[in-house]
Amino acid sequence: MAMIRIRVPLVRPLVRCTFKRILRILPSILLLLFVFSLIFVTLMQIAVIHSHRRTHYVPGRHDGLNATLFPPTGHTILGMPSLQIPSSATKTVPHKKPDTLRVEAFLDKAAPTLEANVVIFKNMIGCVRVRRIVDLLGSGIASPRNKVHIVPKWTNEVRLRIANKSVHNSSCCSLDSKHFHRPSCPLQPPLVGRLFTSPASHNQSEVEALLLRSSYMRGRGSWTPKACAPRHRVAIIIPYRDRLEHLWTLLYTLHPLLQRQLVEYRIYVVEQFGNDTFNKGVLMNAGVREALRDSDFQCFVFHDVDMIPEDDRNVYSCPPMPRHLSVAVDKFNYTLPYSLLVGGVFSIKLEHFLAVNGYSNLYWGWGGEDDDMGYRIKYRKLEIIRPPEMLGRYTMIKHEHRPESPNAIRSALLRMAKKRSSRDGLNTVKYRVVWRHDLVAYTHLMIDIGNHHRWHFLNGQRLVINF
Predict the structure, then answer these.
(1) Global pTM value
(2) Can you give the residue ranges of every domain in the chain?
(3) Most buried residue among 45, 228, 348, 392 by CB atoms closer than 10 A?
């Protein structure tokens, strides 16, 4: 049998050929590695974001978050008798074992819907208007000089306006019948422009002396023009706690500014009772409810006590859309930090405030409630308008900020803003008026908000979302 001889190539040429092949496919290999690395980095970023959303939170010994626990089995929360709390939820909150924090708010299922809430407020405003008309007629009848010929004319015209449903837009809001036929105030009142904002603080005597010199000051922080009928009725809501020096400094600048703008206004200082964590949203909702019991205000301006205006051409009137007034603040180098910001000084009409259901009641501590309002405005297809930066300038009084709400809870609540908007706000706010003082410079409301809107923890620090 013949042997066939096969020639085997040398090792060196084989290695050389393999190396050439590797060089030819090397660009493709590098491209694939680059694509896979991008995919890996993207997945890692998603994982990091998800881990931040489901972060762990361990309250400290002096943290107020674990102060309010669930009541025993069978007790009610926020007026919900059907909600049964398991007995395991009444145990003491451990400090050593961190548990995944998921935010939940037990919302009042028996609260009125947005449509029913609008009807309730319309009825309340109607009662206020009827009471005002009765007071005006009573004052006209009681006046000897109006006894013969003015009273019948006044009565017939009021009846005609009621029949035409035009009382809300009329100028009959004056408390004195002799000003009923006043001309409307000019659209552009004479203003000063840029104001001199002094860092020096002011006290109560300086503000009251300033107000005593102003014409037609009605007390209780209210004022209306004497020579013309105002075009807008505005309620200024100032949430407040332990800032008396800042309050008088703000009022010393705010009262003359509003009077130059020729708007009928009333200032409400809403203070939280007790030493519990500050809840700005509840105070502003309570301020709106209490203001509407006094008069049929057309719009509301929510004003932080530490924001001093620098220009009176930034008008505190009723805007066609929600209007953020404090566009440029010295703390932020007179720039707007982000587009949905409505904190600081914010003006909104009553109809828009009812449409967004007011502020959320669930933000305890500093931050979150204003951003929540921005999301509510966005979800209701409304537009946030702003004055030019050269007009919307404010000076922020330096102070120590109150403790912030935990980032985990605040971010989770903001993600749920759209779902909560119809069940958390003006229609579910619960409070108690401790006392009410009518001062010369403002109306002071002491509000006890209790623990109605407090976060509740289940199984350690676990919070569950129920809608």
Answers:
(1) 0.68
(2) 12-53, 114-448
(3) 348
